[in-house]
Design goal:
Layout (H helix, E strand, L loop, with lengths): L3 E2 L11 E8 L8 E6 L5 E3 L2 E2 L10 H4 L1 H4 L5 H10 L1 H8 L6 E5 L5 H8 L3 E6 L2 H11 L4 E2 L12 E7 L8 H11 E12 L4 H6 L13 E2 L2 H11 L2 E6 L3 H16 L21 H24 L5 E7 L1
Parallel strand pairs: 6-7, 6-9, 7-8, 9-10
Antiparallel strand pairs: 1-5, 2-3, 3-4, 4-11, 10-13, 12-13
C-alpha cells in the first residue's frame, strides 16, 4: 500500500470521516476499495486512494474513447456524441453565442469539434497522449497534455470552461473550481457534468452503482455540496439540472448489469471471476437485459419527474 494515500476532505480540510460504503470491488481491477464521508461537511471521497503517480494504472483506453474512435474518424460515433452532449450544448448556447472555450479532460477533442466549426476559439487539456494525438490527426485540434494544475492560465481569459465527467477525477477539485473562477471572464460560464451521488441508483445499488468508478473517481458529489463549493468560489446564478436522460438511463441499466449479470461477476478481491462456460446463458441473458432496460427506463423517468437524476449538470456564472 506504499502507492496509496489517505487524503483529508478537499472541501473543509477535516481529517475525520465515517465509512460510507466499504468493501467495494470492481470487475475491472483487483482490489478492495471504500468511500468515506467527511464528518464535518458531508463530502464523500475515495479513501484510501492511489497516489497521483499511480492512478494511471487504473485507466484503460477502451474505458473512455478507444472503442468509439479506434478506427479513425467515426462519423456514427460523432453523431452519437452530438446526442449525448445535447444538454450541455443547450446550457452553453442559451448563455453564449461565441467566444473562447476550455475543455478540462478533453479526451479526443470531439466535444470541442462542434465549437471549432461554429467559430469558437477552442482549447483543451488531457492526460492521455493517444487521445491528444487523435484530436490533432482527425480534428486538427491542438490539445495540451498534462494535469490541470500544471498550466498557468491567464486570468479573465475564457468565456466558458467545461468539465465533462472530469471533476470527480481530480485530486483537488475545490482548488480547481477556485482556479477556474479566476481564469473566466466576467459573466463567464463554468459547466460541470458528473454523477449525482445522491441519486436513487446510488442508494439502491450501493457498491454496485456503475457511476462510482472506483478508484478513478476520487470524489463523489451531491448537488448540495457542489453548489456550496461553487458559491464559495464566487459563482452566482448557480443552477442544477437532471435532464440528461440518456446518462440517467445508462447508469441505471449498467448498474443492474454490474449487480446481476454473470458477465460482470467479480472475484472475491475484485477483478473478473471465472465464468462457468458449461452453462448456456444466452436466453436468460437476453431476457435479463430486456428486463433491466425496462426497469431502468421507468426508474429514469420517475427520477427525472421528481427533479432528480443519476447524473447532474451544474453551472454558474462569474
Amino acid at each position: 500500500m506504499n502507492n496509496w494515500e489517505n487524503p483529508v476532505c478537499d472541501y473543509c480540510k477535516n481529517k475525520e470521516f465515517r465509512i460510507e460504503i466499504d468493501n467495494i470491488t470492481s470487475w475491472e481491477y483487483k482490489g478492495i476499495f471504500r468511500i468515506v464521508k467527511c464528518a464535518k461537511c458531508g463530502l464523500a471521497y475515495t479513501n484510501p486512494r492511489p497516489k497521483l503517480s499511480q492512478i494511471g494504472e487504473y485507466y484503460k483506453d477502451e474505458s473512455y474513447w478507444k472503442n468509439m474512435f479506434s478506427n479513425g474518424k467515426n462519423e456514427d460515433a460523432l453523431r452519437t456524441r452530438d446526442i449525448d452532449y445535447k444538454e450541455i450544448d443547450e446550457v452553453i448556447k442559451s448563455n453564449k453565442d461565441t467566444g473562447r472555450i476550455l475543455d478540462v479532460g478533453a479526451g479526443t477533442g470531439d466535444f470541442l469539434l462542434r465549437y471549432k466549426k461554429d467559430g469558437w476559439k477552442v482549447e483543451g487539456i488531457d492526460l492521455d497522449i493517444k487521445a491528444i494525438k487523435y484530436a490533432k490527426k482527425y480534428f486538427d485540434i491542438e490539445l495540451k497534455q498534462g494535469d490541470f494544475f500544471d498550466f498557468d492560465f491567464k486570468q479573465n481569459s475564457y468565456d466558458v470552461v467545461v468539465l465533462n465527467n472530469a471533476l470527480e477525477h481530480l485530486y483537488y477539485p475545490v482548488e480547481a473550481i477556485n482556479k477556474i473562477y479566476k481564469i473566466l471572464k466576467k459573466e463567464g460560464l463554468l459547466i460541470v457534468n458528473l454523477p449525482n451521488y445522491n441519486s436513487f441508483g446510488r442508494h439502491i445499488f450501493k457498491g454496485n452503482w456503475m457511476a462510482l468508478q472506483i478508484p478513478r473517481h476520487l470524489y463523489h458529489f451531491s448537488p448540495k455540496i457542489l453548489s456550496k463549493i461553487f458559491k464559495i468560489a464566487g459563482f452566482r446564478k448557480i443552477r442544477v439540472q437532471y435532464n440528461y436522460f440518456s446518462q440517467n438511463y445508462y447508469i441505471l441499466f449498467q448498474s443492474f448489469r454490474y449487480l446481476m449479470s454473470p458477465k460482470f461477476k467479480k472475484g472475491e478481491k475484485g477483478g473478473m471471476a471465472k465464468l462457468d462456460k458449461s452453462q448456456n446463458l444466452s436466453f436468460k441473458k437476453e431476457i435479463g437485459k430486456l428486463l433491466f432496460k425496462i426497469v431502468s427506463f421507468g426508474l429514469a423517468l420517475i427520477e427525472q419527474n421528481l427533479g432528480r437524476g443519476e447524473n447532474m449538470i451544474i453551472y454558474g456564472k462569474k
